[in-house]
Design brief:
Blueprint lengths: L1 H4 L3 H15 L7 E6 L5 E3 L4 E3 L4 E9 L2 E8 L10 H10 L4 E5 L4 E5 L6 E5 L5 H11 L5 H8 L18 H15 L4 E6 L5 H13 L11 E5 L2 H16 L4 E3 L10 E5 H4 L18 E5 L13 H6 L4 E6 L4 E2 L2 E2 H5 L2 E5 L1 H7 L5 E8 H5 L1 E2 L16 E2 L8 E3 H17 L8 E5 L3 H14 L1 H6 L4 E3 L5 H12 L8 E4 L12 E6 L6 H8 L14 E5 L10 H4 L6 E5 L5 E6 L39 H9 L4 E3 L6 E9 L6 E4 L1 H11 L4 H9 L1 H13 L7 H4 L7 H10 L6 H11 L1 H5 L3 H17 L14 H4 L2 H6 L4 H15 L4
Parallel strand pairs: 5-6, 9-14, 9-17, 10-12, 10-13, 11-12, 13-14, 18-26, 21-29, 22-24, 22-25, 23-24, 25-26
Antiparallel strand pairs: 1-4, 2-3, 4-5, 6-7, 7-8, 15-16, 18-30, 19-20, 27-28, 30-31
Length: about 800
């Protein structure tokens, strides 16, 4: 016993824990040691993405392979057994288990969440495999014969990753599969699964079908499955990439035109099933023909009570129907939960980011002056095409709908291209989706981006493309190229709504929101295009550029974690923060400042058209009446002065979940500290021309444009290095004039050490520094006035005894200039 006191955790496990499990009947293959639950949250830094510590359970107990039913947390012999209880509870909650155990080899504590009264109690021995399996099945309400068979059925391991390793089922996907199969065993006919975009809903669907096919769920034959959606790519990708490799071409079929029979897995578009000269295609299949229907993106058309697509589901009412979505909707006319029932399992965006399976994000909110102030028309003013514009103030709710300001689109395009250039990795721009109001807006944005990115387009003709429902096969071809991780073009895909759901786009690094989004479901689907990780290109995070305040829709505590915590910093006229205040309701669903006035509701007929305005918002407001009378007409104006009113940047707070608004000063400070640029290191690198260029590029890659800081901070008389030192390390600001005076006072002997002609060059270099900053401290400056009046570059260089001596003299000048603190 004395020797046991000194055991390590590993020794305790080998000597006491494993023997105790074996004694209870657990075979070695049923005990999974060091079970890795997740990958650990990724933290984005300018240089790389750093994974956090993964959750690793000491042991997971499996009755059959890949079906965890219990978790064990082991501590060393001398540690109190209760010190492992919280860990065991956390692991069990993640794995969807009701049975967890903490042990130190001497004692065993069982945490049991099954039944009406959860308990924590000390027990004498671990339950055996059969005992725990029966308790697990009872907890899942799947202790019938078919329930036992479904939950014990093996997972399929046919699919491979790009490196030919087995595509493993993640822990939450197992929980989703088990929860669904338990519901099926309980004869639940409508089942809802909610999994965030990018978390593998198709893999879950595949494994459910595979397990059903390996059981006797349908007596005497394999079950017939119909996989439904409303977009071709949402049907073709699952069919081609998942189900065909597993089930083969003989058993997989896409319905189109005629009612083919004799297959096991059918795929179909609602639109295809509705076709038919005399009778709709779906009615040519008996209601009992399909045993299981999987509805992908079920929050879309089929959720509406009056949807014609709902008729397809109701025709096949005898089948078990599984709805898959990342964004269930709940409103009067379309309620996903009302049709499918409460979700049997939910895995949120916040869960995915926390586990390291989804990419964390940064947010930039950019507003233009016309969005903040509005655009006032004059009496009798005509638009670009000669239409008289109703006189009033037009605001964000009107832009791209009834009022088009061409310069607003051009300003956004300029911002996007500047951003892509500043964040380019080794000259390669991050792939970007720009979401516009409609197809017409997308065309104008495509044109504006094309014109601004003239240097990029010259090299890559398809640098920017429009991909909408109106672009047909050409758009689909562009999408295929855009999705490739090894493709250099297109870089920018401009769309309206076509790319906002159900498309796997892991290469996307930037999501640009330039369409007003008032639906939480649409917002989540839209930003979901960026949440997927892409290790092949080193993508571990993504950025959201928001021109329309759409990111206020992050406020969904039940799904995405706590609401955005927006802290508004108040600065004085020199940019110094003097006060901070947390905004009330900062994460509201919509921009309340622009939602006060009622507006007609337009039903989309396509990307670029409007139907007759709905009259459910009948009001007497003359502005609204004008808009209704215009019947969706857009007025196009130009010659408007549009400029960036302001830019806000958001970063993850220390809790790793909420977003915090930061000033540019805070942003620069955090980046400099992240880059580990101590004051001495900053000074020494900045002083030397060559290393200064490297440092400028290094900071630029971290989204810090150092040479623009004097203008951005409102301190044009201060050199960028002093602003960096002040913001990051709190060192006092020193103007360039003051640095020059100190240099002349302290380093006069340095100048006197040079012969007169060389001294004249250095003195002029000092004046250049005082006037324009440290960017002038380089040999190339000798090629501009007044140096050109003093002689040629070769002549001036000869005064120092050669090029190397000139470089050394200018670098030494820079070092001495920056010595003062």
């Amino acid at each position: 016993m004395v020797a046991a006191q000194g055991m390590t955790e590993d020794e305790t496990c080998r000597t006491l824990v494993i023997p105790a499990l074996t004694e209870s009947g657990w075979a070695s293959e049923q005990i999974r040691p060091q079970f890795r639950i997740n990958d650990g949250r990724l933290t984005a830094t300018p240089k790389r993405h750093i994974p956090g510590d993964p959750l690793v359970a000491d042991y997971v107990l499996e009755y059959v392979p890949d079906v965890p039913i219990g978790v064990v947390e082991a501590k060393r012999y001398r540690i109190d057994v209760n010190d492992g209880v919280e860990q065991a509870r956390r692991y069990a909650a993640k794995l969807g288990l009701s049975f967890a155990y903490a042990t130190n080899g001497r004692q065993i504590v069982e945490i049991d969440y099954s039944g009406a009264a959860p308990t924590i109690r000390e027990i004498d021995r671990f339950p055996g495999p059969d005992e725990l399996w029966n308790r697990y099945l009872a907890d899942q309400k799947a202790d019938s014969d078919i329930g036992r068979e479904l939950l014990a059925a093996p997972y399929d391991h046919t699919l491979r990753n790009s490196d030919n390793t087995i595509k493993r089922v993640r822990y939450y996907q197992r929980v989703a599969v088990a929860s669904t199969l338990a519901a099926i065993a309980n004869e639940q006919k409508r089942i809802l699964l909610v999994l965030a975009t990018g978390t593998g809903k198709t893999m879950v669907a595949l494994q459910i079908v595979a397990k059903l096919h390996r059981s006797q769920w349908v007596s005497g034959r394999k079950p017939r499955v119909l996989y439904l959606s409303d977009r071709s790519m949402l049907v073709d990708d699952p069919k081609d990439k998942y189900f065909l490799p597993v089930f083969g071409a003989d058993d997989v079929h896409k319905i189109s035109g005629e009612p083919v029979r004799g297959r096991k897995i059918y795929f179909a578009l609602y639109q295809a099933l509705e076709r038919g000269d005399e009778e709709e295609l779906f009615r040519r299949y008996e209601p009992e023909y399909f045993d299981l229907i999987i509805v992908d993106e079920c929050h879309r058309g089929s959720a509406r009570d009056d949807s014609q697509w709902r008729r397809v589901l109701e025709h096949f009412a005898p089948a078990t129907q599984i709805g898959l979505t990342a964004t269930p909707i709940s409103r009067r006319e379309a309620d996903t939960v009302d049709y499918f029932g409460e979700p049997v399992y939910t895995y949120s965006l916040a869960d995915g980011i926390e586990d390291g399976f989804l990419a964390p994000y940064r947010v930039r909110r950019v507003r233009f002056n016309v969005d903040m102030e509005g655009y006032q028309t004059e009496p009798g003013q005509l638009d670009k095409y000669g239409y008289e514009i109703p006189e009033r103030v037009y605001g964000p709710r009107d832009f791209e709908r009834t009022m088009v300001i061409e310069e607003r689109t051009e300003a956004a395009a300029q911002y996007i291209i500047d951003y892509l250039r500043s964040t380019a990795d080794e000259g390669k721009h991050g792939k970007t989706i720009v979401f516009c109001q409609d197809n017409d807006h997308a065309a104008r944005m495509r044109n504006a981006l094309f014109n601004v990115a003239s240097s990029e387009v010259r090299t890559h003709h398809d640098y920017v493309v429009r991909i909408t429902d109106a672009d047909g096969p050409h758009g689909r071809a562009s999408l295929d190229d855009f999705r490739k991780d090894d493709s250099d073009e297109p870089v920018i895909a401009v769309t309206s709504k076509l790319l906002n759901t159900g498309i796997d786009l892991p290469v996307v690094r930037n999501i640009v929101l330039f369409r007003r989004i008032l639906s939480m479901a649409e917002f989540k689907q839209t930003i979901g295009r960026g949440t997927r990780l892409c290790p092949e290109i080193g993508k571990g995070s993504f950025d959201i550029i928001d021109f329309v305040e759409a990111t206020r829709l992050f406020n969904d505590p039940g799904f995405d974690g706590p609401p955005l915590r927006v802290v508004r910093d108040i600065a004085d006229d020199r940019g110094h923060v003097v006060d901070s205040a947390q905004e009330e309701n900062s994460g509201g669903d919509v921009d309340s400042a622009h939602m006060a006035e009622p507006e007609p509701v337009y039903d989309r007929t396509g990307g670029d058209g409007f139907d007759e305005p709905s009259t459910r918002n009948r009001v007497e407001d003359p502005d609204v009446v004008d808009r209704i009378r215009s019947r969706g007409r857009r007025y196009v104006v130009n010659g408007v002065h549009v400029y960036k009113w302001g830019e806000r940047r958001y970063q993850l707070d220390t809790d790793g979940r909420t977003m915090r608004l930061v000033t540019v000063q805070q942003w620069v400070r955090d980046r400099v500290i992240e880059l580990e640029l101590a004051p001495d290191k900053l000074r020494s690198q900045w002083a030397v021309a060559r290393s200064r260029r490297e440092l400028v590029n290094f900071l630029l890659a971290a989204d810090v444009a150092a040479e623009e800081l004097p203008e951005e901070f409102g301190s044009p008389d201060v050199d960028p290095i002093d602003l960096l030192l002040n913001v990051a390390w709190g060192l006092p600001l020193v103007s360039r004039e003051e640095r020059l005076n100190r240099f002349l006072h302290e380093h006069r002997d340095f100048l006197k050490s040079f012969q007169p002609q060389a001294r004249d060059v250095l003195e002029e270099m000092l004046l250049k520094f005082a006037e324009h900053g440290s960017a002038q401290l380089k040999p190339e400056t000798l090629g501009v006035r007044p140096f050109t009046e003093m002689g040629s570059v070769v002549e001036l260089t000869s005064h120092f005894g050669g090029a190397e001596a000139l470089h050394e003299a200018i670098d030494e000048l820079g070092k001495r200039l920056l010595e003062a603190s």
